[in-house]
Amino acid sequence: MISLSGRRPAVRAPGRGTPLSPLLRLLVLTQLAFNIGFFAVLPFLAEHLGTAVGMAGWLVGFVLGLRTFSQQGLFVVGGALADRYGIRPVVLTGCVLRIAGFVWLGFAARTWAVIGAVLLIGFAAALFSPAVESEVARQAVVWEAAGGGDRTRVLALFTVAGQAGAFVGPLLGALLLAVDFRTACLAGAAVFVLVLAGHARLLPQHIPGRERVRFGGGARLLLRNRRFLALCCAYGAYLLAYNQLYLALPAEVERAAGSQAPLAWLFALSSLLVVGAQLPVTRWAGRRLAPRRSMVAGLGLIAAGFAAVALARPAGWTGAGGLVPAAGFVVLLTLGQMLVAPVARAWVPDLAEDGRLGLYTGALSSVSGLIVLAGSSATGHLLDSGLPAAVPWLVLAAVPLAAAGLLPRRD
Q1: SS3 assignment, position 153
Q2: Alpha helices (H) in 313-356, listed in sequence order
Q3: Host domain of residue 387
Q4: Is 11 contained in some domain?
Q5: Where is the Major facilitator superfamily (MFS) profile domain positioned along the sequence (predicted)?
Q6: Is 384 within 8 Å of 251 (Cβ atoms)?
Q7: Highest-confidence range of 4-13, 58-67, 249-258, 260-269, by mean pLDDT?
Q8: Axis crossing angle, helix 75-85 with helix 357-383, rounded to the nearest 10
């Protein structure tokens, strides 16, 4: 494989490099479709459970946590299955389960039925997402070796497709909610029916260069791979910081504006930045920064975003002026994400054992998810601790800085 740890080759201009293969184009479009179908439903689930189903607040949180666990926590299982059986059966099975889960959720009226549907929805993603992501990473290495350019450009395009789906999906869901939540669920299921049909026709039975491996031994080697585990820790710190869009930022917006209405605009700002600037930022970083430096720079920008809010908090600004630090935080966090996320995904093939790319791709998400789970609990306690207003944000700024020191230093 081509090492990501040294100096990168110059990135070719888009029109002069090797074009993406049909398989890569299919997988990128898959990520777009996955997120459109997913985000047409899930952003509206909490309100549906609280109002239509009548669940208590703690139970709503528990159900949402179960979905995250059944998805993110089991990515390593989906990745291992993709290594063993190939991506086609794993992706197709995941699509079938997602369709069944959305249909079940649309008709679920009791707590046990909602929990079953949500677990099914989450486990479906634990199957198809690591399978698709690992194959994108592997094909990106092939594309780079063929002279197409830096592999991170492919991962950046994959990120843009996912973010575009995350932007379009809620808009579609909001329109469908004018009818009812069941209609939104059935529309989400219909998206995955189209994905299933497309992949049943277009996804190859056997992908050249992808060899199937046995289950045994992979996890033991992974746990001994200190460089990969160091990358997981750094990536988990980035995800913990990104998760503050849903934990620390809403509290700051509520304080400054008196409501959380501006949150929608800040989320839209983040999505539009990724869609519009991810590819140019990746091209720029590919020409100037080695992978480790790219991730260090991204983590530094994220830390600067937390520090900006920390420095502004003692002033106690409110109104439009009070939202400026929050907007700065969103911009810096998003720019940091653009530098960190594609490089981390592109680095995994260099650290994975032969034939275990699916396992390692899934483990990156699962280990990082555990870090976010533990870190989010600590963050929530920190925000409610009654410390001076700037202290929690300064502590959060220190997390990505510390993570930068964990990154692997050599090939």
Answers
A1: helix
A2: 319-322, 324-351
A3: 218-411
A4: no
A5: 1-411
A6: no
A7: 249-258
A8: 180
Confirm if 309 and 329 have CB atoms less than 8 A apart: yes
Structure tokens at 277: 């600037």
Residue 238 φ then ψ, to 5°:
-60, -45
CA-CA distance, 342 to 13, in Å (whole number)? 19
Q: What is the pLDDT of residues 189-234, one digit of tens each?
A: 999 999 999 999 988 888 876 676 666 667 788 888 889 999 999 9
Distance CA 359, CA 364 (A): 9
Q: Are 337 and 400 in contact (CB under 8 A)?
A: no
Give φ, ψ of 328 to 5 degrees: -60, -40
Q: Are 81 and 155 found together in one domain?
A: yes
Choosing from 165, 186, 212, the residue where a domain stops is: 212
The rounded distance, in Å, linking the Cα atoms of 371 and 374 is 5
The total number of structural domains in the chain stands at 2
CA distance 128 to 401: 33
DSSP-derived secondary structure letter, 56: -
Domain stop point among 162, 191, 212: 212
> Taking a C-beta distance cutoff of 8 angstroms, is the pair 155, 136 a contact?
yes
Closest CA to 345 of 159, 74, 89, 85: 159
> 38 and 169 in contact (C-beta within 8 Å)?
yes
Query: Which distant-in-sequence residues (6+ apart) come within 8 Å of 30 by Cβ?
Result: 91, 132, 195, 199
Would you give the end-to-end CA distance of the chain in angstroms? 12
Q: Which residues contact 319 (CB under 8 A, 6 or more apart)?
A: 256, 257
pLDDT at 339: 94
C-alpha distances out from residue 253 to 57, 124, 264, 272, Å: 21, 34, 11, 20
- When pLDDT is cut at 50, 70 and 90, the band that residue 7 belongs to is very low
Q: Which residue has the tokens 């959305």?
A: 102
CATH code of the domain covering residue 119: 1.20.1250.20
Q: What is residue 317's predicted lDDT score, i.e. its pLDDT?
A: 80
**CA R_g for the chain:** 21
Enter the pTM of the model: 0.79
DSSP string, 267-318: HHHHHHHHHHHHHHHHHHHHHH--HHHHHHHHHHHHHHHHHHHHHHGGGT--
Q: How far is CA 334 from the centre of its chain?
A: 13
